[in-house]
């Protein structure tokens, strides 16, 4: 790689991010074409994918060397001290280059080779089939049909080709409506609720300005409301704060005038825009990254960042949507400005609350493919996959995952997947290791032939789905309530420590109940099998010995040579089942880890400090 | 009994009870000397509410026409509402409740009237005796002795009759030391760390005053716990500033010049009304569901509750660190040595000593470090978060301790034999109980009240197997290590089991917990079954071989 000048630096120190007494570990830093690798003297490895690097910063030279701070998109922050400034400078420059990719084909996904043959690759991409998904929802049907209007991405570049619209929406209506909508994103079906015959539809803002109207668009909305036989009234949810929507009118955009559309109820729900969200996360990270943070600084920082307020706003919007459908059987049309950020959040969360399928592992993948990937959430821009406009970066998808996490906390039995699944997806939205999240829309993905050149993430997650299963999941969880009704009282929203401090091990519980229960649940399955085998064996034995009594002379060789060797379940005799002991051992039980010892420098002897950085990044990369 | 005089209307029909997350219940309300009872008359699922008057923190009454409403706020933080038809009845009930929930005399409290309906297997009053504790200690060291100097509570009114002190210090010296310490609370042994023989002692502040009074015996006493050439640490739970100010009132701290082998560390743990206000603010914030996010977070912050948790945990970790990591002995004290001192010494033991993480061990810790050590439970727990009266002595000191234990439990969910429910149960009983355990302010008062003879001990009830099983942690696996909790603000959480308990439905969380318990139980069953089958198979195979050999 032309960007790499120095591939190896020795005697590099990795500082503990939160220690005020500058505790550190020494090791060797390696720079590869795809990763930055730090190997401690104890051989523990820290892998950092170049694409995960959000920012590299070289701090002023100190007596011990040149500090290099790397912030990652998965919220890992590492602080190295490189002995020679020259080396630090080289690494800094290389990382700057390597973390800023100009073209898609330079991304890791194009060099990543998971040793699959091409038919496996194709099969992997076919795992999630959205046509299947719409069939599962119950469309096409008497009221909804597949439209080929966008077959060549002619009407809307950022929509998928297959779109479902009301049967009564003719092509001229679609075309007319799309011309009246920002970026041509006209109202289409996002989710169809079979029982209520109500639909979640999505679009972008109308180009209404102060007074413009569009008959086709009005017809389009009417078609949607007519496609719902149970309730002629439909809701139009503008997910923006009212003020923002009004300001848009001056630019010839805006929101629906209730007088022009028949049978609509218009509602603002007040989710802030991508810029507010970006700076909110920035503030949150500043607070959570502070050394020696006091409780009050943390809480007031959390408040000032507004982050949890935004998460609550997103969930509140989804709850509003769900009530309209579940209680009033009314269809809902959701939009924001362009209909690819807030709209994706609200539509997907709404569907997740309404339909337990999306609370399964496979269903969640489908949901992301449908409401986020296919409907053109701009993953490339929002996650800064290519070196681009920093103003386009925004944690919109992270907020979606966080909202889901909040729901899993309230309904511990309602989801087939666990927190690790959400974290892993977040990891790969930024890793650029798989093709799913690359690019901004389907058209772009097709043109760049991602499906031929890269791999899909989902089969890999399914393969290791044991790791992502919630051991407490109950598929029949409240059967009368396939509908989840979350309580969005403020105190139910918590700081997601496992996301924002994923790599700061010292902050987490030292024993994980989830891991323990997961192991136990696995163990139970294995033992059930073992018991069957054992019982079969004993039965055989018994019938054999009965047989022996009758025709003893006929028996030749004894069945099994020695006891206990034949059955696979006896391989590990003691303990009966291998329990993952590491779960129960106490990691990092070290005072140095826990932030109360700092002022006692004078007796901080060389303790074997336990580092908070480990694997994480490299989990899916090899 | 004179209770009858306080009850003008003992019974009202058609009273409606409202509680959050439950349907309203209509029934008959009865008042007895110690209980408020509401029983529904419906045959299908007869529901009864029994509320101890002593659990009532405050009441409010309202009238709409002739329908009266009484809102009862309890010390366990629950709020219930009773709709009572008839203005007179309502007024009578309200005034009776008010009178009965604020009885002056301890001997009128329910524990003196409670007749247990269970068989006492083990008398809890005799379950945790200092003599037993000393016996355990004697098996590992002979440097300590049991002193009966306080037999008649004559030396220190808030200490138990027997205390553990260094062997080399005689009772005469102790008497002199007692004169030099606030409330006569001379340094006594709190904890012996078997791993390295280091100890933790606790006391009250020394009475140095402004002119730097010293006491040779005091110096000798605490020096007796040091190994040759080793230094010790004095953890003063007050800030340096507060400690200095205490000198003006005759108190003070150990001067370096007189205690050269000790290094003093000041931590600042808040006291009394500051803690009580913190609790009141926290509960207020938790009880208002209408708060938007910003308001909720700022209210939570303004309560300072989690700040107190962090301060207390930090001090406890520091004490534990001195003992385990630095191999030094520690003396902990604040002013009186009955509040923050006990928070620190007891939490340090939970961190250091696996025994304290068992149910039995934790009970023993509560008895030793809180009851016998003279934490004034009766004063501190007289009122809870809804009290209107500004009294001086209430403070959620013990609740803060329980909350800190909960924080550690959350971080080490497999290292404790007991579950969260055990801690909540203790919280409830410190504020209102049918048992005598938490009555009185110290052993002296308890002995005068003859609690052992006249009331039942909480431990007699809790330690019966059928009761105990409710409090067991299904995840428990004994862990002999020292457990260091994280005190980063990101690691501390609001104790929802106490503070949000009545403010949200925990149905889904409870069901998930049940599922977890089922899974663990099932795991045990399967293990047993696999083992049994394996044995059976082995037997069969041995039989085979024997047959072959025939």
Descriptive account of the structure:
The complex is a heterodimer of chains A (622) and B (550). With 622 residues, chain A is an alpha+beta fold. Chain A is 37% helix and 13% strand. Chain A has 20 helices and 14 strands. Chain A has helices spanning 85-99, 118-126, 130-137, 171-179, 215-226, 242-249, 274-288, 295-305, 307-328, 342-354, 361-374, 379-382, 396-410, 419-431, 442-447, 450-453, 458-463, 497-500, 513-550, 581-584; strands spanning 8-15, 24-31, 35-40, 45-49, 53-58, 66-72, 77-82, 144-147, 163-166, 188-193, 198-203, 234-238, 264-268, 331-335. A seven-stranded antiparallel beta sheet of chain A has the order 4-3-2-1-7-6-5, with helices on one face. Chain A starts with 7 loop residues before the first strand and ends in a 38-residue tail after the last helix. The model of chain A is unreliable at 551-588 and 598-622 (pLDDT under 50). Chain B is built from 20 helices and 14 strands. Chain B has a seven-stranded antiparallel beta sheet with strand order 4-3-2-1-7-6-5, with helices on one face. In chain B, α6 links the parallel β12 (232-236) and β13. The termini of chain B are far apart. The model of chain B has no long low-confidence stretch (mean pLDDT 94). At the A-B interface, α8, α9 and α19 of A face α8, α9 and α20 of B.
